[in-house]
Amino acid sequence: MKTKRPFHLGLYYALPFVLIVTTLFLFLLFWEKGNLEEEQQEHLIHTSSTLVQQILITRMWNAEHGGVYAEINDRTPPNPYLEDPERDIVSRAGKRYTKLNPAYMTRQIAELANMHLGYRFHVTSLKPLNPANRPDPWEENALRSFERGETLQMAVVRDGGRPVFRYMSSLSTEQACLQCHAKQNYRIGDVRGGISVLIPMDESERIYQKRARTYLAAGSLLWFSLILFIVLVSYTMSRKVVQEMTRELELSRLRTAIEMAGAAAHEIRQPLTALIAYFGLLEMKLSNDQELMKELKIMEDQCRRIDGIIIKMQNITEYRTKVYMDDIQITDLDPDRPDNAP
Predict the structure, then answer these.
(1) What angle is formed at CA 263 by the lines to CA 259 and CA 331, rounded to 5 degrees?
(2) By the 8 A CB rule, do 219 and 225 touch?
(3) In a domain, 114, yes or no
(4) pLDDT tier for residue 333 given thresholds of 50, 70 and 90
(5) Cα angle at 95 between 91 and 100, to 5 degrees?
(6) Which of 32, 156, 192, 252 is 20 to 30 Å from the Cα of 309, by its Cα?
(7) What is the mean pLDDT of the chain?
(8) CA–CA gap between residue 226 and residue 122 (Å, rounded)
(9) What domain count does the chain have?
(10) Is 25 inside a domain boundary?
(11) Are 196 and 122 in contact (CB under 8 A)?
(12) Are 5 and 242 in contact (CB under 8 A)?
């Protein structure tokens, strides 16, 4: 019987636990990755929804005041699509002002948001009064879904080679809208378009990629610590197992050696005793033949040597071996005797 080395045995027993822990950590890694992606999308939805609500509140404020006036300049020329006899006015100081209705004000705020924050938003429709408010293909599909009863569309798309989050909410007709859109046969409550929001995902991707790397590093450290703990525990236990197996093996070998020695002593000693007795009789009969007596003496000494070996076999208390030839091992009956002794 041959026992394994403690390290190899430890790895053998640790392998199933390592596979289980690794599989569990991979599952948790992909689960956490999905959670981060879902959290990122929820954050983008919340940001877009908040932005839309701010736009609607701003438009509502403008509508409640019947529009606001701003000084005419290169950035704020009169709105050619606003049909209002008081669209343009002149102050007593001679400055010229033009009215900004909700749509015009929204467009100017959108330009500032795009310039300073990178956000893009605008009000669009399948039937825009201002050609500049025509929908792009994604917005057109969203607007057609609004006609089918849906109220919200969102997606992650590529814009100029970078990922962006697009969000669009339907826009219902209100009383203030009829000032410009009554001629398009809209009625209060009709869905006449939508507010489209485009948010670059560069910063969002950077934040969530950093969090993903942090989770990955922490998870990898925890995984490595658990694997190391499993291997060390398995190695410690395997050492005890190997020691116990070695002890049992030695006891088994010792029992075998003692049983073999007992059998040999029983089977060999009887004819050996008879031989020694006959040598004594032959010595008395051939006492006058000195040459023959020498040979008999040698034979008797070898028989007594065999008897001594049997006694050693009967007195075995521990199992030891020695090299017999090449890699063959035999039981060492006299460990205190030098190997080259006769």
Answers:
(1) 55
(2) no
(3) yes
(4) low
(5) 85
(6) 252
(7) 79
(8) 53
(9) 1
(10) yes
(11) yes
(12) yes
Q: Per the domain annotation, does 277 fall within a domain? A: no
Q: Which pairing describes strands 120-124 and 162-172: parallel, antiparallel, or unpaired?
A: unpaired
Q: What is the DSSP string of 65-90?
A: TT-EEEE--SSS---TT---TTSEEE
Cα–Cα dist 55/184, whole Å: 23
User: Nearest 5°: phi and psi at 189?
Assistant: 100, -15
* Residue 217 placed within a domain: no
Which helix (H) or strand (E) segment holds residue 229: the answer is helix 202-285
Name the maximum alpha-carbon separation found in the chain.
168
| Adjacent-strand bridge partners of 88 | 98
Write down the residue that tokens 């330009």 correspond to.
111
**What domain range includes position 171?**
6-210
What is the rounded distance in angstroms from the CA atom of residue 262 to the CA atom of residue 34? 73
CA distance 137 to 191: 19
Q: Where are the beta strands (DSSP E) in the chain?
A: 68-71, 88-90, 96-100, 120-124, 152-159, 162-172, 191-200, 321-325, 328-331
Instruction: Output helix, strand, coil percentages for the chain, rounded to the nearest 5.
Output: 60, 15, 25
Amino acid at 219: G
Give me the numbers of helices (H) and strands (E) for the chain, helices first please. 6, 9
The conformational region for residue 99 under phi > 0 = left, psi -120 to 50 = alpha, else beta, is: beta
* The pLDDT of residue 166: 92
Structure confidence at residue 1 as a pLDDT band (50, 70, 90): very low
- Pair of tokens at residue 310: 């049997």
For residues 279 and 294, give the distance between their C-alpha atoms in angstroms, rounded to a whole number.
12
Average pLDDT on 322-342 reads 58
Instruction: Give CA–CA dist 192/181, Å, rounded.
Output: 9
pLDDT score of 2 more than 50: no
Predicted pLDDT at 296 = 74
If you ran DSSP here, which 8-state letter would residue 238 be given?
H
Best CA proximity match to 292, nearest among 91, 300, 271, 107: 300
